[in-house]
Amino acid sequence: MIATYRTLLVAQFQQASQYRVSMFLYLLFSLIRPIIFLAAWTAVAAARGGSVGGFSAADFAGYYVCMALVLHFTTAWNAYEFEFEVAQGRLSPKLLRPLHPLHYSVVENITWKFFTAFGLVPALAFVAITFQARFETQWWNVALFVPSLLLAAAIRFFLGWIVATAAFWTTRVNAAVTLFDRIMFIFAGQIAPLALMPGILQSIAYVLPFGYIIGVPTDILRGGATLDQALLWMGGQVFWLIVSYAGLQLIWRAGVRQYSAVGA
Amino acid sequence: MSSVIDVRELRKMFHVSEREEGLGATVRALVRRRYRDVPAVAGISFSIEPGEVVGFLGPNGAGKTTTLKALSGLLHPTGGEARVLGFVPWRRENEYLRQMTLLMGNRSQLVWDIPASDSFRVLQEIYKIPEDQYRRALDELVALLDLAPLLHKPVRSLSLGERMKVEFAAGLLHSPKVAFLDEPTIGLDVSMQARIRRFIAEHNRRTGATILLTSHYMADVVALCKRVIVIHHGVLLYDGDLAALASRMAPYKVIGVTLRDGSEADGLAAYGDIQSRDEARVTLHVPRDAAPERAARLVNDLGERLIDISVGDPAIEDVIDRVFTTEATS
Amino acid sequence: MIGRYARLLLVFAKVETQYELEYRTNLIFSVLQQAMIMVTSIGAMLILFSYTTTLNGWSLAEMLVLLGVFYIVQGIGDTLFGPSFERLLEHIRLGTLDFTLLKPANGQFLVSTRHVKLRNSAQLVLGLVVLGIGISRLESALSAAQVAGFIVALGCGFALMYSLLLVLSTLAFWFVRVENLLVIYGAFVDASRFPVDIYPGWLRVTLSSVAPVGIAVTVPAQALAGRVDALGIAALALAATLAWVLSAWFWRRGLRSYTGASA
C-alpha cells in the first residue's frame, strides 16, 4: 500500500506541477473570503470601541489567519470531479482496478495542498502583518494542532465523498454540493468565530460535524482554549471521523450497487 | 464576366516559437524565445469563375486550409492580394459575409443543446433573411438533405452524419454565392459521404454557387471537381483539369493479372513494371498507349494459365502522390 | 442599428429561454440554489449587525441596500454576458470562434450576448427585493436626485464590470489558461459584497481601480444612501466611459492578433 501511494504521489506531482499557476491563483481566490469577513469584523469591533465578545481586531485577525490555514488544508473538491467522472463513464475502469477509487482522490488532495502550501504561508504572513494579528498559541497548541488538523481533513474528505456519491443517483449533484457548501459556510466558522455565532447555531455546529472541521483546529491553533477543552473537542473529532467513515462505506456500497444495476 | 475569386501572389508567413526538448532548453525558453518563420503559403495565384466547383488538394500542412482561411476572411495574409466577390475578404465587411459561407467538417457552428430549428431562426435574424426567402431556402435544404425528422431534436442527440447534414443546412440557409468547404466529409461513413457529395453537386447545379473545397478523400474531389488546384509546401503545383492531371503525371495504366500458378509471376516482368505481388495476383504498370497491346499479348501468351485480367486507370491518390514526390525531388 | 441589435438580443434570449424551460426541474433547482446563497448571505449580514448598529458608518438598512445592489449587479452580469464570455474561451480553444467572426454582425456583440441565461436572473429579482427592503428602512426618504444618481451609477457600474470581463476574456487570444484570471475576477466580485471602504488600503485600491467591481456596487449604494455627491458620480461615469472604449479597442486588438493582421 505504501509503495502504491508512493507511485501515485510521484505521478500526481508531475501532473500537478503543470498546473502551478492555476493552483496559485486558486489559492489567492480562496483567501479572499476570510479577508472579507475579517475586514467586516474589524469594522464591527471598531464600531463597538475595540472588541466584540472578547475578540479584539487583532484577535479576529489571528482567528481568520488560522481559519484560512485550516480551511486550506481541509479542502476537498471530490464531488465535482466525481460527478464528471460518472457522467463521462470514466468511473467504470476505475472500479475494475484492484484499488479503491478513493485512493486516487486522497493522493490528488494531498498533492495539491502540498504544492499550494508554498504560496499559502507567505500570503498568510502578509495578511497577519497587515491586520496585526494576535495569537495566544502555546507549545501544546501546536502539538495538538497537527493531529487535529489531520482529523478535520479526514472528516471533511469523507463528508465530501458522501455528498459526491449523490452522483450515483442523480445528475443534480451541483445542487447537493451547493447546499453542503452553504452549510459549511454557516456552521464551520467562516462567517464568524463560532463563539460569536448566535447560540442555537453554535449548538448545531458542535452537534453536527461541521464545527469540528474548521472551528476546532482553528481554535486550537490560535490558542485561548484550555487543554481540557481542546482534548474534548478532539474527542468529538474522533467520533465524527468514525461516523463519517462508516457512513461513507455504507453509502458507497449502495451507490456502486445502484450504478452497476443501471449499467456501469 | 469577371471572376468570383481572384488571388494574386498570396503569401502567409507564420511566426512559430521553437524549443528543443529537455529541461535546460525549457528554462532557456522562459527567458529568451527562439522563433522560426514558417511559410505556409509562398505566393500562389489563381482565379475562379462563378459556378465552378474547384478542389484544393495537398497533404497536411500544404497550405490549403491557410489559403481557405485567407479567402474566407479569417486570416490576414502577409503579402499578395485576393478578392472574393469584389471584396477584400479579411476586411470582413458585413456585405461580404452575407454572401459567403465557410463550412468546416470537424467543427460545429450549431449550439449543441438546442434544436437545429432554433439555431436556424437565430441565423435568419443574423443574416437578415426575409421570411419568404428563408422559407424557400429551408424547404429546399430540408428536402435535399432529408432533414424533417432532425430539425426539432437537440443537436447533441444527433448522430455524426445527421449533424453534418444539419450543419450544411445552417451554412447554406442564407443562399451564399460563395461556399468554402473545409474537409466536408471527414469522419463520415461511406454512404453518408456519397449523399453529401450528391447534395453539394445538386446545390451547385440549382443555385450556381461557387464552391471551393478541400478534402483528403479523393472520392470527394473526383465526384465533384472538374478542376483541381494542387498545393504543396505553400506552392501551387498544378491548376487545371483533373483528368488532364492524371494523364500528365501518371501516363500509365494499371493491369491486374491473376494467374493460375503463382510461380509464373516473375515472368510477367517482360510485359511491364511489376508493382506488387500477392501470391497469384500481380499488378503491372504499363505505358498508357501500350496498354491495349500488352493486355492482348498477355491473354494470348498465357491462355489457360490466366484466370483474370483487368485494365484500369491509376488511382488518383497515386497520381497526386507522384505530383508531390516529383515536386519534392525537383 | 440599435433596433437591429435589440432584436438580435431578443432572439438570443428567446431561444435560450425556450431551451431552459424544457428542463423545468433544473430551472427550479437553479433558482433554489441562488435563493439559498442569498439567504445565507443575508444571515451572515444579520449576525454581523447583531453586534453593532453600524459597520464603518453604514447602517443595517444601508448595508441591505448594498447587498441588494450586489445581487442586482451580479444577476445582470450572470444573465446577460457572463455565460457568453465563458463560451468565448471555449470557442477560442476549439477554433469555433471562426464561425462567429464570419457572421455579418458585430463580433463583440455576438460574443458577449449569444448565451443569455435567464435563469440566473433569480439573483436579480431577489436582489431587487432586498434592495426594496433596505430602502424601506432607510432613515430619510429618497430624493429624486438620489434615485437619478443611483440609476446613473448602476449603469456605469454595469459598464465597468462588462469592460473588465471583456478585457479578461480577450486575453484568451494570447494566453491559454485565462480561466485562472476569471477565478481571480470572481474573488474580487465576491469581495464587493461589502462597501469598499472597510477594506485595507491595498484591497480597496484594487477593488476601485484594477478590478473596479468594488465601486460598481458601492457607488450606486452610496447614491441611494446619500453618501456620494454629483462629482463622485461624474467621476464614475467618466471611468465607465473610458473603460468601455478601452475594452472595445482591446477586443479589436485581440481579433487582429488572432487573424494575423499586422499590428
Quick recap:
Chain A is mostly helical and 264 residues long. Chain A has helices spanning 2-17, 20-47, 57-73, 78-88, 91-95, 101-130, 139-164, 173-187, 199-207, 210-222, 227-262, and strands spanning 51-52, 55-56. Chain A contains eleven helices and two strands.
**Average of the residue pLDDT scores of chain A:** 85
Q: Count every beta strand of chain A, where a strand is a DSSP E run of 2 or more residues.
A: 2
**Beta fraction of the residues of chain A?**
under 5%
Rounded to the nearest angstrom, the radius of gyration of chain C is: 19 Å
Low-confidence segments of chain A: none
Sheet having the most strands of chain A: 2 strands, antiparallel
Mean pLDDT of chain C: 88
Q: Estimate the global geometry of chain A from the Cα principal axes.
A: globular
3D structure, described in words:
The complex is a heterotrimer of chains A (264), B (330) and C (263). Chain A is mainly α. Chain A has eleven helices and two strands. In chain A, a hairpin with a 2-residue loop joins strand 1 (51-52) and strand 2 (55-56). Chain B has eleven helices and 13 strands. In chain B, helix 5 (131-145) packs antiparallel against helix 6. The longest helix of chain B has 18 residues, at 190-207. In chain C, helix 2 packs antiparallel against helix 3 (60-80) and helix 3 (60-80) packs antiparallel against helix 7 (121-136). Chain C has twelve helices and two strands. Chain C has helices spanning 2-22, 24-49, 60-80, 82-94, 97-101, 107-113, 121-136, 144-170, 179-191, 201-210, 213-225, 230-258, and strands spanning 54-55, 58-59. Chain C is globular, with a radius of gyration of 19 Å. The chains are: A mainly alpha (264), B alpha/beta (330), C mainly alpha (263). Chains in contact: A-C, B-C. The A-C interface holds A 21-22, 25-26, 28-29, 32-33, 35-37, 39-44, 46-48, 52-53, 130-131, 172, 174-175, 178-179, 182, 185-186, 191-192, 196-198 and C 25-26, 29, 32-33, 36-37, 40, 43-44, 47-48, 50-56, 177, 179-181, 183-184, 186-188, 190-191, 193-194, 198-200, 202-203.
Distinctive features:
heterotrimer; B: 330 residues; alpha/beta; six-stranded mixed sheet; four-stranded antiparallel sheet; 13 strands; globular; C: 263 residues; mainly alpha; two-stranded antiparallel sheet; 2 strands
SSE map:
The complex is a heterotrimer of chains A (264), B (330) and C (263).
Chain A: H1 2-17, H2 20-47, E1 51-52, E2 55-56, H3 57-73, H4 78-88, H5 91-95, H6 101-130, H7 139-164, H8 173-187, H9 199-207, H10 210-222, H11 227-262
Antiparallel strand pairs in A: 1-2
Helix pairs in contact in A: 1-6, 2-3, 2-6, 3-6, 3-10, 4-7, 7-10, 7-11, 10-11
Chain B: E1 5-18, H1 23-31, E2 34-48, E3 53-57, H2 64-72, E4 79-84, H3 94-97, E5 100-104, H4 116-127, H5 131-145, H6 160-172, E6 178-182, H7 190-207, E7 210-214, H8 218-224, E8 227-232, E9 235-241, H9 242-249, E10 252-259, E11 273-278, E12 281-287, H10 291-302, E13 306-312, H11 316-329
Parallel strand pairs in B: 3-7, 3-8, 5-6, 6-7
Antiparallel strand pairs in B: 1-2, 1-4, 8-9, 10-12, 10-13, 11-12
Chain C: H1 2-22, H2 24-49, E1 54-55, E2 58-59, H3 60-80, H4 82-94, H5 97-101, H6 107-113, H7 121-136, H8 144-170, H9 179-191, H10 201-210, H11 213-225, H12 230-258
Antiparallel strand pairs in C: 1-2
Helix pairs in contact in C: 2-3, 2-7, 3-7, 3-8, 3-11, 8-11, 8-12, 10-11
